Amino acid sequence: MTTTAVAPLTVQDAETLVTAAHRAAEDAGVTVSVTVLDAGGHLLAFRRDDRAVLISGETSTRKAYTALQLNAPTADLVDAVQPGGLFHTLPTALDRPLLFIAGGVPVHRGGRLIGAIGVGGGAPGQDHGFASSAVRALA
Q1: At what angle do helices 55-70 and 124-138 cross, to 10 degrees?
Q2: For a 10 Å CB count at each end of the chain, is N or C smaller?
Q3: 104 contacts 67 by C-beta, under 8 angstroms
Q4: How many domains are there within the chain?
């Protein structure tokens, strides 16, 4: 069995993601913060609009981290942490900055997880849309 090397998420990729997410948010008239993490969970890029609510910086980072750790869009995980859900105790079981609100999306290349983007500041559905459009722009 041979494995094919997949290029990691670069700073240039991260800037493309941030710019695309901010452009989508701006087109919708929403001010946001955007965080991009590499596959190891390290910060590659962050930008907060001047008028974005301050907490959006923290939420964008936690959304990206959650999407990365679970390799799934946070929008797909919201029901899993509700009472009776598969991950109901996960948010409090770990001493990690998980956040199960839509707006975090994993980034894949060649079928492999290479990082994640998180967007905060809009309504959860909007944040998910901005993050998803940024990932599509990177492809």
Answers
A1: 60
A2: N
A3: yes
A4: 1
